[in-house]
Amino acid sequence: MADDITEEAQKVRSALSELEAIEDPIERAVAISEVLADHEERAPRLRELRREAVLAMRAEGVSYRKIAARLKVSLGTVQSIERGHAGAWGTKDRRKRELQEERSAE
What we know:
This protein is mainly alpha-helical. The protein is 74% helix and 0% strand. It has 5 helices and no strands. The protein has helices at residues 7-20, 25-59, 64-71, 75-83, 94-105. The radius of gyration is 18 Å and the shape is flat.
């Protein structure tokens, strides 16, 4: 699988594996907390960068299937990214979904 991902992504994955291998459970938990906090802060920007790539490919006329293959994600994920959805529909704010359903019913 390492051949299938970029060098930078492999470095991140290796660092996460090293984090999981920290022997002291307290030290490991502290390190995990730091990584999770950083991820929470970076995630919106990372999603936006990925969305920019999807939108650029769509503007060039690249099909959803080709984008999915290139980004190594599912077709549905590409469509969600294009729409600006950050996660699975089941994780969306319930009130927001209800409003969307009401609008589509009108």
